Amino acid sequence: MAVNCSVDFEEFCRLGICSVDFEEWPCQARIYLLQIQPFVNLVRFLLLNVTPFIIIFGVILNVVSFSMLSTVILCDSGLSLYLRALAISDNGALFNYAVGIARHYSTSINTLYMNSRFLCGLNSIFMEFFQITSTNLVVSLTWTRVGAIIFPLKSISKNHNRNATVTIVVLTCISFLVSLTKLFSGGYESDSVFEYKTCQKVATPWGSTMYIYIAFSSWLPSVFIFIGNVLLIIHMKKSELIRTQMTCTHRNNTFSSSRTSRTLLAVSIVYLILLLPIGFIETLELYWDVVLTKSPSTNPTENDLYIKWLQEKMLLKWCRGLCFHIYHWNFAINFFLYYLTGKKFRDRVIDIMSITRFRNF
């Protein structure tokens, strides 16, 4: 049965195909997009309609968290400094997502970026910079806490804030250097799930730098967070056994230490759970586009393989979009994790809410 490929370019553009080589795509690939359209519509709805609410509430909650962690009661350790830096970095990531959505909805905004090489480069760098910085901060938080539990005597120091500041500055510089790779490789910018016309005309869509980017932004942090959490849980269990042998004074200190560990454990585990899907799909898509890449051919067998490859490439793109949306939640939910696992943070929130209610009455 003959396949009808009479759908015009504008209609297929609405379905997510606006590629410059659209007319060269085989008919089977165009029809395949129609078959997966329900899934595409779901992902598009999440990215363009749900993500804006994540951005708004995430920014508000991160500002509230930053304010709470800056109070005298909660800023008594290097932990507070890490979490405040994380709130700033998370808001930076959310702002970049807002830019992507704005470029989708507003042609004038996207044109502004396309006409400015500086804005394009800046957007590419900072889109990755804040994401990588947040990830590195979570890794550092995890291992700082592991070190404090495994080597408690060495962790007794009055320079927690200075050490945390130095660590944050070093991590920020490393994240920025890794983000500079986006100037030489367009990566996902060349095929954004936000569906705006890309301004990456010089940089190649893929390259060896993308292996560095994916390893540094996904897999290495995931491995470090996982190992750190395993060590943290093991030593927390040991602390539970030792706790019954301690005096009341020491027990209170251990409880406080345990609460801090639970907060960091919650933050790092949730981050790991939400990071793994996007890391997996990015790796698979990179392998598909670089190692398994196919080209159109006059040979029927080879051309069938190309069509199959192109169809899977479209499916992988929208799977990446779904995982990317899931990953967005990483930057908006820390307030709830602090509230659920941190007694001092929770008490501070309740106190402020009580004062606010009293003033309203």
UniProtKB/TrEMBL annotation:
PROSITE patterns for the chain: G_PROTEIN_RECEP_F1_2 (PS50262)
Keywords: Membrane, Transmembrane, Transmembrane helix
Cell compartment(s), UniProt: Membrane
InterPro entries with a match to the protein in the record: GPCR-Ligand_Int, GPCR_Rhodpsn, GPCR_Rhodpsn_7TM
Cellular component, GO annotation: membrane
Highest taxon listed in the record's lineage: Eukaryota
GO molecular function, one term: G protein-coupled receptor activity
Coiled-coil boundaries: none
Domain G-protein coupled receptors family 1 profile residue range list: 58-338
Classification via Pfam families: 7tm_1
Principal location class: membrane
Annotated transmembrane regions: 53-75, 164-184, 210-234, 263-281, 315-340
Family per similarity comment: Belongs to the G-protein coupled receptor 1 family.
Protein name: G-protein coupled receptors family 1 profile domain-containing protein
Organism phylogeny: Eukaryota, Metazoa, Ecdysozoa, Arthropoda, Hexapoda
